[in-house]
Write a structure and sequence with these properties.
about 170 residues, about 70% helix, mainly alpha, single chain, Serine Threonine Protein Phosphatase 5, Tetratricopeptide repeat, 8 helices
């Protein structure tokens, strides 16, 4: 009896998960029609090689489109690609600018974070960790790039200062 109950619960959970999961074609269609969250998800598929060959150039393309649409996870993903040279040369200045934008754009709801606090802390901490590895002139270039990117993204008021928490 206990085994059947556990089995039934596991089957229900698995079925629910499968019903919620969208196939690649559906997510790609959403991404191609401007859904920035879907764009990020397509980038993740290509970056990780999930059901598709790993393709950093394709991942970068989708992350960049989503980031310019204001999607904070895509900004973070671009920063990681620059930091580790995934499909790009390592560029810590660009990594810092994108990490700072991700920290600035992480969503809030009525001034309360509605995503896990650990993720928020990670997003806020990364710019300081990267900045600590850079020279003053590199930090200044990152701040200039941050302001330019923020303006391109469409929220110029966020360009007033690059958020950096010291590690």
């Amino acid at each position: 009896m206990k085994f059947r109950t556990i089995s039934a619960v596991l089957i229900f959970v698995f079925a629910s998960f499968c019903a919620m999961a969208e196939d690649f074609a559906t997510v790609l269609h959403k991404a191609e029609n401007g859904d920035t969250y879907a764009m990020h998800e397509i980038g993740v598929v290509y970056a990780n090689g999930e059901g598709r060959p790993q393709d950093y150039a394709e991942a970068f393309k989708w992350f960049e489109k989503a980031a310019y649409g204001g999607q904070h996870n895509a900004m973070y993903s671009l920063a990681i690609m620059y930091k580790f040279g995934q499909g790009r040369d390592v560029d810590m200045v660009k990594a810092l600018a994108w990490h700072a934008l991700a920290a600035k754009y992480i969503p809030k709801n009525a001034d309360e974070w509605f995503i896990p606090r650990a993720k928020v802390d990670m997003y806020l901490r990364r710019p300081g960790e990267i900045a600590a590895q850079l020279s003053t002139s590199e930090q200044e270039r990152a701040a200039q790039l941050y302001a330019e990117l923020a303006t391109k993204i469409g929220v110029p008021e966020s360009a007033k200062g690059m958020p950096i928490q010291q590690p």
